[in-house]
Amino acid sequence: MKNILFVLLTIGTITVQAQDHIESQVVHYNIVYNHLFDREKDFKQYDAILYMQGDRSLFTMKRNDKIEDAYQTNYFDASPDSLFTVFKDFESNSLLFDFYHLQQGNIIYADTLHPMEWKLESEETIVGGIPCKKATVRFKGRDYVAWYAPSIPISNGPWKLGGLPGLILEAYDERREWHAVYNNMKDIAFIDFSYYERLVNKGVSSFTDFINDLKILLKRMSGSLSNKGSDDCLTCMSTSLVTMYMWEKID
User: Fold this and answer.
1) 116-140 in b/e burial notation, b at 16+ Cβ within 10 A?
2) Distance (Å, whole) CA 37 – CA 51
3) pLDDT > 70 fraction of the chain, expressed in percent and rounded
4) pLDDT tens digits for range 174-195
């Protein structure tokens, strides 16, 4: 039996322009992410940025260490899934994320903006010199801890997380396979979100469509690999197994 571990890549873009009359902020996070989550331990370093302007924001993260040139022959890593690019529009209550489909290229999907039901805890800590309070939630099959700063009254945070009475400066899942920590925050002039704004106005496929598309892709890959396996020998039976690991689970 041949095991093929399949993980998926997202790609995000952002344009920063120098127009002094519009106030915007950029929050930098350092992220440690186990891209072999739920299987083995292989933690990588990522740089992440949360661009914020008015009612809109864009979160992106990318590797900052060396990417290996080769993997095991039975391991296909097209890299992470829906963790990597998230656009939020609070005015229209919209959230978009992008996903790299091996057959169709980069695709944008929509999800619910901040549906998580946080439990506010009494614990406090300091993150980056800023007092923070603790909140916990179960979201898309994983348990998360977030440390938010009441002194920064922005109801946002890294990735899809948000909806707390303060900016999230640190967040991680219970197993700490994804761990984001605030680095710094600064003002910039202007961010061009027009590409994502057009998509919000146009309308894109839902998270349910996203899951269904992945199931179809998985079925096609399984069938293709099984057919190839049948030519390997004349008297034996061969079954190829494609396993898809998704960061966001469905409870």
Assistant:
1) bebeeeeeeeeeeebebbbbebebb
2) 27
3) 73
4) 999 999 999 999 998 888 999 9
